[in-house]
Write a structure and sequence with these properties.
Bound molecules: 1-deoxynojirimycin
Radius of gyration: 28 Å
Number of helices: 24
Strand content: 15-25%
Low-confidence stretches: 1-7, 13-19, 21-31
Mean pLDDT: 95
Helix content: 25-40%
Structural class: alpha/beta
Oligomer: single chain
Shape: globular
């Protein structure tokens, strides 16, 4: 063989390929979205391995939104594809200009940020939004967040967080939609649609990142970052559905989680990252790791060193590495050593470039600096935040119609560490929100009542878990005096915002610090009182549930919290939210959730050898789906369209809802099913439909739901999704614990 001749013809071929791809790239550079795959291939063909690895790298900016000095050089050399936390139109534009004007291939950066419940206009925490049971409203909130993010140059939101959480000790329960896969799926869909719309390249839209893939919410003991271990059946039926809903809504990206799942960390798990996500679900976007979760594979003990960690994550299907730099450091050597293929890298780059093209970043890389400020906190954004906050409030108790309060009240004692607190109102993950934008409860009430009304404000204690304030006695006495001195008492207690969220697990769910003591002292003053709870998770509030005449669960309501709570307290808004998560009586009951199995020995108070506790009931303090109204609703006339259907048939369930009280109001009608006998044990109840309905006093409406195989099926022993013949019970109610009941059969 003439090696010399072969060598020169090889060189010629290479030159031709390079020339051809350059020409093709130039031709395609301004082609429409439909040509994305061709544009990706043309660009990929021109990239060096170093530049490819650059696209796989995401680095963190400064907390204040600035990029770091080292980013400039990395971007110029094409060694950085993305940042997180860099934000603001001018900051993102500055760095983007370097990418687009100074780097060899001019590939734009994608700027990511945690837009969890708002960018600048802060909405209620996601758990609260889920309590609205109003997906259309939640979609509007995400759309506002998207518009503000877009204006700030942030085209990628690390949201929605859709982890099912059945352990309120886990602080991140605040970021999701609670315990139920069906409600979680609808909220996931709504949020993805709000962020992305039909086409995330549209102005004002951003690409969403559904997280944390997967089962992160099942952390043992509710301790953040802890191990999860579960059957595939549970994984598919409980933890996957919100992610699947996000896929069906077109979500562009995924984030791989911190946790170990059944012995394989989620950030190196080929079963979830490749088999399910790419194989079964045909996902064509990209996966970013969570913060250093690639490096953490070493701590998990699945990789012995950095290079093994990089290889494990890349081959499992994690495309972009957040913050740790193991891909950039080790991938080239791994390829040389034959431990990693060039094709794996190419595929990861392809997926990332595809999303950058889909976002329209190549055509519109910059933010409009002139429009940034007018977009933030616009009147309509703020109004939406107020609506979402008031619709997220859940009325847990209202004895003798304590609520709503009269606006012409002469004097109100407003007591509690959270009553006049801007910082905590905006919640656990407040984007670029500012505490000074937040309306406190004191400000909200002031704006609601006539100037002549006296508001006796007293802090009462701090919210700190230590409860070690030096002036505790004086604070408490002042609060009691304020209560005695007033016609009615509003007591705002709960958690500080940083007691929930990431790395904020709690072993106790009691009110932290001296707040219960404060509640008891204030109650002893003998005035009618209302407890306003602010918190990011279910709390064990037995004493309050027994002794307070009225309780409002207001979560952390965001920028407009104070106005929204005042709207509800004084009856301008009739509360209609429902709990998206069970409230336990005791931390020892956890995990406690409505969709549990029957067991072989269901609880029976007359029989010791049944499934229960010696020292606490098995029932929750407040069940999933629970929430009251200032009016009264009656559900009647549950009707099924058939007594039996085929496995692939459809069944219509109808019931009549009537407002038999004196005020207009909202009710969330909920449909649950039970598959009575099946080849795999089934939950006692599963939510399969709901609708939030507004009725005038005296108004009656028929509510209709359709059940089909997607609602009636489950994963059998061979992981096939099947609908099995037999009896199904149907429940239609106002919460998960009670309702009308009927049944039907599935027949072959
Ligand atoms: C860690 C969190 O788990 C994740 O939710 C977040 O998006 C990243 N950090 C980036 O801030």
């Amino acid at each position: 063989m003439n090696l010399k001749a072969t060598g020169s013809s090889l060189r010629l071929v290479l030159v031709c390929i390079c020339l051809w791809s350059a020409v093709l790239y130039a031709a395609l550079a301004s082609a429409p979205q439909a040509d994305i795959d061709a544009r990706v291939e043309a660009l990929l063909a021109r990239m060096t391995l170093e530049e490819k690895l650059g696209q796989l790298q995401q680095l963190d900016g400064e907390a204040n939104g600035n990029y770091r000095p080292e980013h400039v050089d990395l971007v110029r050399r094409g060694l950085l594809g993305s940042t997180l936390n860099v934000r603001g139109a001018s900051k993102t534009n500055e760095l983007q200009r370097i990418a687009v004007e100074q780097s060899r291939l001019k590939i734009p950066l994608i700027f990511g940020f945690d837009v969890i419940h708002g960018y600048r206009t802060i909405f209620p925490v996601p758990l609260a939004e889920a309590a609205s049971w109003d997906p259309a409203l939640v979609e509007r909130a995400a759309a506002v967040a998207a518009a503000e993010s877009y204006a700030a140059g942030v085209r990628w939101a690390f949201a929605p967080m859709v982890d099912i959480a059945r352990d309120p000790r886990w602080g991140r329960i605040v970021e999701g939609a609670g315990e139920d896969p069906y409600l979680g799926a609808l909220m996931a869909r709504a949020r993805v649609r709000g962020f992305q719309g039909d086409d995330y390249s549209a102005p004002g839209k951003v690409v969403a990142c559904v997280k944390h893939w997967v089962a992160y919410g099942a952390a043992e003991g509710g301790r953040d970052y802890n191990t999860t271990d579960m059957s595939e059946n549970r994984l598919r039926e409980i933890y996957l559905p919100p992610f699947k809903a996000a896929i069906d809504a077109g979500v562009g990206t995924f984030m791989s989680a911190f946790n170990d799942l059944n012995g394989i960390p989620a950030s190196a798990n080929p079963f979830t990252l490749t088999k399910i996500l790419r194989g079964e679900w045909k996902f064509t976007g990209f996966v970013v790791s969570d913060y250093e979760s690639v490096r953490e594979l070493i701590n998990h003990g699945i990789a012995g060193n950095e290079s093994e960690a990089a290889r494990a994550a890349l081959t499992a299907g994690v495309d972009m590495e957040m913050v740790s730099r193991l891909y950039a450091k080790h991938a080239a050597a791994l390829i040389r050593e034959g431990k990693l293929t060039q094709a794996t890298i190419d595929e990861a780059v392809r997926r990332i470039l595809r999303v950058k093209f889909r976002l329209g970043l190549f055509d519109h890389p910059y933010a409009d600096e002139a429009r940034e400020q007018t977009t933030m906190l616009s009147a309509s954004n703020v109004q939406t935040a107020r609506d979402v906050a008031s619709h997220s409030i859940v009325l847990l108790k209202n004895e003798r119609n304590t609520l709503p309060l009269q606006k012409d009240v002469r004097s109100i004692a407003l007591i509690g560490p959270l009553a006049d607190d801007q910082e905590n109102m905006i919640g656990s993950w407040s984007g670029d929100g500012r505490r000074e934008d937040a309306v406190t409860l004191l400000a909200g009430i002031r704006a609601k009542v006539p100037p002549a009304a006296r508001i006796n404000y007293a802090k009462g204690c701090t919210v700190s878990a230590a409860g070690d304030e030096t002036n505790a006695e004086a604070l408490l006495n002042e609060a009691v005096r304020a209560a005695r001195d007033s016609d009615v008492v509003i007591l705002a207690v709960g958690e500080s915002a940083d007691m929930s969220g990431e790395a904020a697990s709690r072993a106790s769910l009691d009110l932290p610090g001296r707040q219960l003591e404060l509640a008891k002292a204030v109650a002893a003053a003998g005035k009618p009182f209302v407890v306003v709870l602010m918190n990011g998770r279910p709390l064990t509030i037995n004493w309050i549930a027994d002794n307070a005449p009225a309780i409002l669960e207001t979560w952390f309501g965001g920028t407009q919290a104070g106005n929204a709570i005042a709207d509800v307290l004084f009856g301008d808004v009739n509360p209609g939210g429902k709990l998206p998560v069970t409230f336990p009586r005791h931390v020892g009951q956890i995990p406690i959730y409505y969709g549990h199995k029957n067991t072989g020995r269901p609880p029976d108070p007359k029989n010791k050898y049944t499934s229960k506790y010696l020292d606490a009931p098995v029932t929750p303090l407040f069940p999933f789906g629970y929430g009251l109204s200032y009016t009264t609703f009656r559900l009647t006339n549950l009707t099924l369209s058939a007594l039996s259907i085929k496995p692939d048939g459809r069944l219509t369930v109808t019931a009549d809802l009537e407002n038999i009280g004196a005020r207009p109001g909202d009710e969330v009608v909920q449909l649950y099913i039970r598959d009575v006998v099946a080849s795999v044990t089934r939950p006692l109840k599963e939510l399969k439909g709901f609708e939030r309905i507004t009725l005038r006093s005296g108004e009656k409406r028929s509510v209709q739901f359709t059940l089909s195989s997607e609602h009636l099926g489950f994963y059998d022993r061979a992981m096939r999704f099947v609908v099995e013949p037999g009896e199904f019970q149907v429940f239609v109610g106002q919460n998960s614990a009670e309702g009308l009941q009927a049944s039907f059969q599935i027949v072959k």
